[in-house]
Write a structure and sequence with these properties.
Blueprint (H helix, E strand, L loop, with lengths): L3 H26 L2 E7 L10 E12 L5 E10 L2 E14 L2 E11 L3 E10 L2 E8 L2 E11 L4
Antiparallel strand pairs: 1-2, 1-8, 2-3, 3-4, 4-5, 5-6, 6-7, 7-8
Length: 144
């Protein structure tokens, strides 16, 4: 009978640890702007282009690893506010926002893996035949 108790205690610890990670992730990405640069593979990295993504909020959805990101995306001549259900995978305690051939309405289909590390982000992206790197800082937006 007692053999199951350590497993239950371990499971409760995992749930508590996971809840803390989720809470930290939400706090990190609620009401922020990801401000940085992106590069294009095959072009001179010295010519990195500026990028900015504003995230109103994120919240965990019940389905698997999906999180709902309410964001404003400026890409080329597009400027859209859109809710996006995106996968977040965890490398230990580090969240990785993961798009795998994900279609974003009005923008196209993308693959991307973006690591969130404190107040910094970095990752890779692919859009059709074009791909590159992205990196920058996470800045809190002023409350409206």
């Amino acid at each position: 009978m007692c053999a199951g108790r350590p497993a239950l205690a371990q499971e409760a610890k995992v749930d508590t640890d996971q809840a803390k990670l989720f809470e930290k992730f939400e706090k990190t990405l609620n009401n922020v702007a990801l401000v940085g640069s992106f590069t294009i593979v095959g072009r001179d990295d010295k010519n990195a282009k500026p990028e900015r993504y504003e995230i109103s909020n994120v919240r965990k959805l019940e389905e698997g690893d999906l999180w709902l990101f309410n964001a404003r995306i400026k890409y080329g001549d597009k400027d859209v506010k859109i809710p996006m259900p995106l996968e977040v995978k965890w490398a230990g305690k580090t969240p990785v926002i993961t798009l795998d051939n994900t279609t974003i309405p009005g923008l196209g289909t993308f693959s991307s893996h973006v690591v969130i590390d404190g107040d910094k982000y970095a990752g890779t992206w692919t859009h059709g035949e074009v791909s590159g790197h992205l990196f920058g800082t996470i800045e809190k937006l002023e409350e409206k």
